[in-house]
Amino acid sequence: MVQTVNDAYFRHAAQEAAAETPVVEVLIEVPRGSFLKRGSTGNVDFVSPLPCPFNYGSIPAYLGLEGDLLDALVLGPRLPFGTLVRVKAWGAVTLTDRGMTDDKLVCSNHSPDPLQRQEILQFFHLYAKCKGLLNICRRRPGRNACEGWCEVSQALARARPRDDSWRGPPFSF
């Protein structure tokens, strides 16, 4: 097979992007396949009618715009509750929950392919609708929507480092 200049360029660009991809520590709160949605304090938020399609948790070093730990999902095999894993963050999904921006970093050992990105976005579009219904039942007003995919650098720029004064989210989710 003949290698073109474009092939070499794109392979080099992909390797360069992978080298610049930040590594984060994610604490698993919801193992892949679990029906229990736990929050950053360890309390059960709700029981889902559908299993979570990926490991879900938070990055203890950062706070998101809503005042809670920055959310993250980890693709790959099921990880036990409470596992702390170092993994690359490849992008983020921006969710609006009760009118507040709530970024979720997308992490794995390898960059998600376009089909995985599409599946993640489809999940969060459905999740936002379901969370909106739950918020109505809980009498918690505000817009709920999946805003789409963004670069990890954008999500990290909106987050702030967590300090020792943080004791939990400013309100219930």
Main attributes of the structure:
Inorganic Pyrophosphatase; 173 residues; 35% strand; 9 strands; 3 helices; alpha+beta
Q: Please give the share of residues in helix.
A: 25-40%
Distance between the termini: 55 Å
Strand content: 35-45%
Do you know the CATH architecture? Alpha-Beta Complex
- CATH-defined topology: Inorganic Pyrophosphatase
Element-by-element helix/strand order:
HEEEEEEEHEHE
Summed over residues and divided by their number, the pLDDT gives a mean of: 87
Which parts are unreliable, with pLDDT below 50 for 5 consecutive residues or more?
none
Shape: globular
Q: Tally the structural domains.
A: 1
- The count of strands amounts to 9
CATH superfamily, by name, is Inorganic pyrophosphatase
**Class derived from helix and strand content:** alpha+beta
CATH top level label: Alpha Beta
Across the major sheet, the strand order is 1-4-5-7-6
The helix count comes to: 3
Radius of gyration: 17 Å
The description of the largest β-sheet is: 5 strands, mixed, barrel
List the helices and strands and how they pair.
Blueprint: H1 5-20, E1 23-30, E2 36-38, E3 44-47, E4 55-63, E5 69-74, E6 84-97, E7 100-108, H2 114-137, E8 145-150, H3 152-158, E9 160-161
Parallel strand pairs: 5-7
Antiparallel strand pairs: 1-4, 1-6, 2-3, 4-5, 4-9, 6-7, 6-8
Describe the structure.
This protein has 173 residues and is α+β, with helices and mostly antiparallel strands. The chain is built from 3 helices and 9 strands; from the N terminus they run αβββββββαβαβ. It has helices spanning 5-20, 114-137, 152-158, and strands at residues 23-30, 36-38, 44-47, 55-63, 69-74, 84-97, 100-108, 145-150, 160-161. A hairpin with a 2-residue loop joins strand 6 (84-97) and strand 7. The chain is globular. The model has no long low-confidence stretch (mean pLDDT 87).
